[in-house]
Amino acid sequence: MNARTALVTGGASGIGEAVVRALRADGFTTVSLDLRAGASADVSVLGDVSEPQANASAVEAAIKATGQLDVVVANAGVHDGGLGLDEPPDELLQRMRRVYDIDVIGYALAVQAALIPLRAARGHVVLTLSDASFLVGQQGAGIAYTAAKHAGVGMVGWLARELAPEVSVNAIAPGGVMTSLQAVDAGGSHRDVFDDPAAQTSEIERRNPLQTVLTVDEVAAYYQWIVSDQTRGLTGQIIRPDGGLSVK
User: Fold this and answer.
1) pLDDT at 17
2) Residue 223 known to be catalytic
3) Tell me: the pLDDT tens digits for 81-98?
4) Exposed (0-12), middle (13-18) or buried (19+): which is 233, by Cβ within 10 Å?
5) In whole angstroms, how far apart are CA 7 and each of 59, 66, 93, 96, 159?
6) 5-247 CATH
7) Do residues 245 and 131 touch, judged by C-beta distance below 8 A?
8) pTM for this one?
9) CA-to-CA distance for 58 and 78, rounded, in angstroms?
């Protein structure tokens, strides 16, 4: 237990960085895979999660650090900025592919790269989903992001069955959380999803029964719990700290 290691994709900002901090506080050696340096992680690997070699390099860094890999948090993601079918076909294609490359394929590549050491450690995989995994057209997500997060639901079940009994696979699906999440725009550029935090926080509070918006550190606590010994009977599950949207 003293040598536990966690790889967090998208670990340089937002929920990913908060998860890195939380797992470090629990004694994990942490590795961040991101396009930017992960200042909070013990080891930072620069790379694009949609590229197999980047994921392989991050796993290699984890093994080099402690000799094992216990946890993979597949978290790196981009938003589609509310992409709809009114966009030109070429732009729709480009933006949908980029969202899928990161939010779906990037998750699969991270797990594939880590599979051997995860099985050896009897470890954990945690996917970051969102309220878009269950709601359609109610929270600003367009066709690409909504479909990608629904794909994540299927991935949780498939991976949980495929990786058992050695590896547990679960997901965290928070409601709106104020982060630096980026949306893909035309030409591959990016913009902030939460460009008016005060107004968007008020909207998120209004639409969930508990009228609450969690901080990234509060969300990260769910990741701490789900990779702990307290959850050794849990796999294929999605935890939803979203203020009760399922009973809205």
Assistant:
1) 97
2) no
3) 899 999 999 999 999 999
4) exposed
5) 7, 12, 31, 26, 17
6) 3.40.50.720
7) yes
8) 0.92
9) 20
